[in-house]
Structures are given as structure tokens and as C-alpha cells.
């Protein structure tokens, strides 16, 4: 890229593909197989990810062109082909020249299943507006969003388990964010919806959805992320509601798993839920409850025998499980939901714990019953959730996922895998706490881990040090942010010391070259960079250091690239 002019120029690049390319070593080798899970990375001449934001649009549905024309689009063959397009804007300084490389991550990154999130075209299928699809690996969609609810009136649509086998699994989706009926029983739609994908992957996606209810009463901001891992899909939600004026409601839910108008393959035998002990001496089973699920014929009324706006027991994190899946279809998963944290003022009073409601094999996060039916200006709810879909035991899906990955996390869960509720509980109890004694550094999130330099002057430190208490499941996202450059120091990076070890060890998950395992994001609002890793945390106490070599004994690995990573031998045609 060259700019011979005396002023900065902005270059827009659009890169597309709709032609067949395939590699027999990949677990899914049909034409355009990467479409379901591609994540672009723009790299500099040294191979470092630059952090330049890119928008991905794609389409894989092969609907007949007749439907395209009926929808009113004159697009020739565009409605019947598979394609993807990557768009980016580059600011090119005056009188400069630079070399950049575009890498398209497909299925794995640094030997571990990557995560991607992108806009999906529905031209020829429906005339509704924005649809988004996210995937762990490139083996089929894992969660989709009907962002404005214009197709399904549910903002979370298809949700699928990942078995890492090269095949699409069955849909056990639906879900929704705010479900709000006014005091007269009328559903209140949202307006001013603004969906933005800031980072599509491959280590940690980052998307936001903002909206306000049509009556102007409740404003919502949702942040969604999915992460690179090798065990099961974790969908991270950070949701904030702010009440802008007094209102009454006849029904209110802050989150649904399964939704009013979109729920698939939801024949579950039991609903289990629980909280964490208040102290180490408490019996954890004292906070667990099981409810047998029966068929439900009215999707709008809460059955009297099920919990309704019932406050959860114990302390955060709280967990909810629907399992086992009773249908015999291959490739089905069990549902799980974890409420990692909760902060709320409702009806002008502190609400220290969430409540939940259950009906028609759907679970809702609700206002506690004592709140009544009124919200007042200044009320708020802020919560962090994890929606997980687990490979079930009885039909062989768990064994299949473990065989395809050799995952340390799935191996650890194997003794309890016959009980999906126990696996959801294990996800909840993988509760990490992050701390730092370093001046000029702030912990912004415990899970995913996010540790930032707090001001531009702090960038001169060139290192970040922090400590993590607790063990994680799968590969834990670790974000180091507030950095002044996209470059990782030569010979440096993320260093880890766990289990009382004397030495730090430099994280190296490289497969094709020395830099193909981390992600960089440029944050335009602050002019800084963040670098994302995914780390297995096996020890109860772990020290982290980002930067050049720590000022204590440490070991840096010798890079030995493997040009062909191992994949399952049985690949579908």
C-alpha cells in the first residue's frame, strides 16, 4: 500500500471470494466450507496482527433465484451462490509505503478452534433486515442473532452444540434479551436498534446491540463475545438496562433462554438450578433444586406448578440447566445458563439477587416478585451471563466431542458428563478472580479476563502484571488492553507462572508461524490497542505478565512450526 501524496489518504479495500478452494486435510472440504466460520486477520510485514477492524458479510444459502426476484432484488446470480466479502478502511500516512498481509482463519487458530462473528445475508430466503451468525470453528453455526427481531421476534435464534466433527448439529435455540409487556398487556417493541460488530475473532469476538423501548421507558446495551476454545461453545453476554422514566409492566424478563416465538428441539426431562455457597463451610447441595418438566400448551401463560419470579438461592454465580435432551436426533445438545454477576435497583430499591421464571421449557431472568409491577426512573440492571450448549451423554455426543479434540477440559468433565446439569454447575464454579498490585493498571473484567493500562502515560510502562485465583474450564480469554502499539515486544508476549513454579513460561501456541495464536484490536475511541490470548488455567493461583521477559527466571520456548495440524481423520466429502 503506497501513498505518494502529501496528505493522509483513506483507502477502502473490499476482498471477496465465490470460487471453489478446498484442502483435503480440513474436516469439512466442500466448496465454501469456511463461510460459516471465517475470521480475517490483517498482519504487518513482521506477521503481527495490526488490529485493523474489518467487516465480514457472507451468504451460503443456495435458494432458487426465483425467490430472489420475488423479494424485489435484481441481483443476477448473487442470490444463488455462496460468497463472502471482507471490507476495511486503511488510513495511509502521507508519503508512505507499507506491506500488509490478509490471513483468513478457517476452523482453527494456533491449533485451537477459532471463533468468528459476522453479518449473514438472507437475500432469497427472507426480506427481513439484519441477521448475524457466530461459530466455534468452521463446522456450522453455533449461535445466530435476528438483531431487530423482524423475522422471529426473538433476537437469539439458532443455537447449536459443537462436536468438532465437520458436521452441522441440530438447533436447540431460541432466546431473547428484553421481553416487556406494558401494564395493559401489550408487547412493547424496541426502536433505535444499533448492532455493531467491533471484532469478528478469531480469539474473542466483540459485538454490541443498543436499543430503547418504543415507549422510551427502558434503554438496553448488550455486549456479546464468543471465544476460541476446544471443549464447548461459551456465549458471553454483558447486559445493562436503564429505566429512563416510570413505567408499569404486566410481564417483564431481562433474558430468555428459549423464547416465546423461537424455540427448537426443546424436549428436556428436567430443569435444575442452584447458586454458590455463601461460605466454604456451606453444603453446596443446599442451594440446588430439581423440577421435572412436562409438556406446556400455552406459550404465554406461566404454569402454576413452575417457579414464577422466584428469587435464586445462594450467592453468585447462579446456574440453570435443562437436561437431558429426550429426543433421539443425532447432534443435539443440552442447555445451560450461568448468571456470573448481578447488580440491580428495581422499584427504587436494591435487588441483591435475580429471580427466574420457568414455563414451556424456557427459563427467564425476572424481577423478584416483591418488586411488584412498577419500575421507576433511575432503576437499572447490569448482569453478566454465559449461555452454553453442552454435548449430551446418552446419545454419544460427549464421547464424540472428546474424541475429536482430546480436550483437557472435556477429559476433566468426563466423570460427571452423564449429568449435563453437573457440567453447567462446573462451568459456574470455574469462577476466576483477577487482581493486580501494579500502579496504572485496572482490572475491568474477571471472566473473560480483561486487564488494562488506564491512561496514555501508562503506555510507557510497556508491561502489565496481574494474578488470577481459581481454575478455568476450556481456554479462558485473556485481554491486555490500553497498549500503545499493536506490536508484541521481540522475545516477549504473555508469560504465565502457575502452581508455585519458580519460573514464568512464555505462551506459545504457534502452528504455522510465530504469531498465529493471538488477536489484536485497535480501539478507535481511545487510540489504543488490546491483545487477546486464550489460555488454559489449571492451577488455583496463577501469575501473568505481559511484555518483555519478566525480571525473574523465565523460559521462552523455541518455535518449531507444524505445517499440517492434526484434524479428525474421518472427514465428510
Write structural notes for this entry.
It is a single chain. The protein is 5% helix and 42% strand. The two termini are 39 Å apart. With 573 residues, it is mostly beta strands. Strands 16, 17, 18, 19, 22, 23, 25, 26, 27 and 31 form a ten-stranded antiparallel β-sheet that branches. It is built from four helices and 42 strands. The radius of gyration is 24 Å and the shape is globular.
Give the key terms.
573 residues; mainly beta; disordered C terminus; 10-stranded antiparallel β-sheet; globular; 42 strands; 7-stranded mixed β-sheet; 42% strand
Structure in a nutshell:
The chain has four helices and 42 strands.
SS elements, strand count: 42
Q: Quick one: overall form?
A: globular
The end-to-end distance, rounded to whole angstroms, is: 39 Å
Mean pLDDT: 85
Sketch the major β-sheet: 10 strands, antiparallel
The helix/strand class is mainly beta
Helix content: under 10%
Topology overview:
Blueprint: E1 2-3, E2 9-17, E3 38-43, E4 55-59, H1 65-70, E5 83-92, E6 96-97, E7 101-106, E8 108-109, E9 112-113, E10 115-120, E11 131-136, E12 143-146, E13 156-159, E14 175-176, E15 179-182, E16 190-199, E17 206-213, E18 218-226, E19 234-243, E20 247-253, E21 255-257, E22 268-276, E23 288-292, E24 310-311, E25 315-325, E26 333-346, E27 349-350, E28 355-359, E29 362-366, E30 374-375, E31 380-391, H2 397-405, H3 408-413, H4 420-429, E32 433-435, E33 441-446, E34 449-453, E35 464-469, E36 476-483, E37 493-498, E38 504-506, E39 519-523, E40 528-535, E41 541-547, E42 554-555
Parallel strand pairs: 4-10, 34-36, 38-42
Antiparallel strand pairs: 1-6, 2-5, 3-7, 4-5, 8-9, 10-11, 11-12, 12-13, 14-21, 15-20, 16-17, 17-18, 18-19, 19-31, 20-30, 21-29, 22-23, 22-25, 24-28, 25-26, 26-27, 26-31, 28-29, 32-35, 33-34, 35-41, 36-40, 37-38, 37-41, 39-40
Amino acid at each position: 500500500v503506497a501513498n505518494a501524496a502529501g496528505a493522509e489518504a483513506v483507502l477502502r479495500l473490499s476482498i471477496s471470494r465465490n470460487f471453489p478452494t478446498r484442502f483435503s486435510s480440513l474436516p469439512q472440504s466442500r466448496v465454501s466450507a469456511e463461510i460459516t466460520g471465517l475470521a480475517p486477520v490483517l498482519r504487518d510485514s513482521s506477521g503481527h496482527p495490526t488490529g485493523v477492524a474489518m467487516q465480514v458479510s457472507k451468504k451460503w444459502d443456495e435458494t432458487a433465484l426465483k425467490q430472489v426476484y420475488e423479494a424485489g432484488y435484481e441481483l443476477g446470480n448473487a442470490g444463488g451462490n455462496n460468497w463472502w466479502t471482507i471490507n476495511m478502511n486503511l488510513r495511509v500516512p502521507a508519503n508512505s509505503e507499507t506491506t500488509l498481509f490478509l490471513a483468513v482463519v478457517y476452523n482453527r487458530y494456533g491449533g485451537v478452534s477459532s471463533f468468528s462473528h459476522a453479518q449473514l445475508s438472507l437475500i432469497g430466503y427472507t426480506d427481513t433486515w439484519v441477521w448475524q451468525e457466530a461459530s466455534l470453528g468452521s463446522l456450522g453455526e453455533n449461535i445466530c442473532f435476528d438483531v431487530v427481531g423482524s423475522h422471529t421476534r426473538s433476537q437469539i435464534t439458532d443455537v447449536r452444540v459443537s462436536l468438532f466433527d465437520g458436521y452441522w448439529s441440530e438447533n436447540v435455540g431460541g432466546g431473547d434479551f428484553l421481553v416487556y409487556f406494558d401494564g395493559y398487556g401489550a408487547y412493547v417493541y424496541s426502536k433505535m436498534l444499533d448492532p455493531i460488530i467491533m471484532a469478528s475473532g478469531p480469539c474473542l469476538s466483540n459485538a454490541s446491540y443498543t436499543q430503547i423501548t418504543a415507549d422510551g421507558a427502558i434503554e438496553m446495551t448488550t455486549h456479546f463475545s464468543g471465544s476460541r476454545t476446544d471443549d464447548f461453545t461459551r456465549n458471553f453476554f454483558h447486559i445493562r438496562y436503564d429505566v429512563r422514566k416510570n413505567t408499569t409492566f404486566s410481564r417483564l424478563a431481562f433474558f430468555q433462554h428459549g423464547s416465546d416465538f423461537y424455540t427448537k428441539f426443546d424436549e428436556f426431562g428436567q430443569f435444575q438450578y442452584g447458586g454458590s455457597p455463601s461460605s466454604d463451610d456451606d453444603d453446596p447441595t443446599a442451594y440446588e433444586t430439581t423440577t421435572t418438566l412436562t409438556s406446556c400448551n400455552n406459550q404465554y401463560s406461566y404454569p402454576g406448578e413452575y417457579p414464577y419470579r422466584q428469587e435464586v438461592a445462594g450467592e453468585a454465580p447462579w446456574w440453570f440447566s435443562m437436561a437431558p435432551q429426550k429426543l433421539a436426533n443425532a447432534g443435539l445438545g443440552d442447555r445451560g445458563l450461568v448468571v456470573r454477576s448481578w447488580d440491580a435497583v428495581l422499584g427504587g430499591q436494591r435487588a441483591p439477587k435475580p429471580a427466574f421464571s420457568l414455563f414451556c421449557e424456557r427459563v427467564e431472568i425476572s424481577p423478584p416478585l416483591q418488586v411488584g409491577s412498577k419500575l421507576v426512573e433511575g432503576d437499572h440492571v447490569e448482569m453478566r451471563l454465559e449461555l452454553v450448549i453442552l454435548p449430551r451423554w446418552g446419545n454419544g455426543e460427549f464421547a464424540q466431542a472428546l474424541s475429536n479434540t482430546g480436550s483437557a477440559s472435556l477429559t476433566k468433565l468426563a466423570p460427571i458428563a452423564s449429568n449435563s446439569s453437573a457440567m453447567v454447575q462446573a462451568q459456574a464454579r470455574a469462577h476466576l478472580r483477577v487482581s493486580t498490585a501494579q500502579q496504572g493498571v485496572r482490572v475491568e473484567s474477571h471472566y473473560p479476563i480483561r486487564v488494562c493500562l488506564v491512561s496514555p502515560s501508562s503506555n510507557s510502562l510497556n508491561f502489565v502484571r496481574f494474578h488470577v485465583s481459581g481454575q478455568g474450564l476450556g481456554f479462558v480469554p485473556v485481554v491486555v488492553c490500553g497498549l500503545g502499539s499493536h506490536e508484541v515486544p521481540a522475545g516477549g508476549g504473555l508469560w504465565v507462572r502457575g502452581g508455585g513454579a519458580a519460573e514464568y513460561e512464555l505462551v506459545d501456541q504457534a502452528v504455522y508461524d510465530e504469531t498465529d495464536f493471538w488477536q489484536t484490536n485497535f480501539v478507535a475511541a481511545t487510540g489504543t490497542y488490546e491483545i487477546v490470548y486464550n489460555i488454559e488455567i489449571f492451577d488455583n493461583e496463577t501469575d501473568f505478565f505481559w511484555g518483555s521477559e519478566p525480571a525473574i527466571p523465565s523460559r521462552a520456548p523455541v518455535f518449531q512450526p507444524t505445517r499440517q495440524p492434526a484434524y479428525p481423520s474421518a472427514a465428510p466429502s
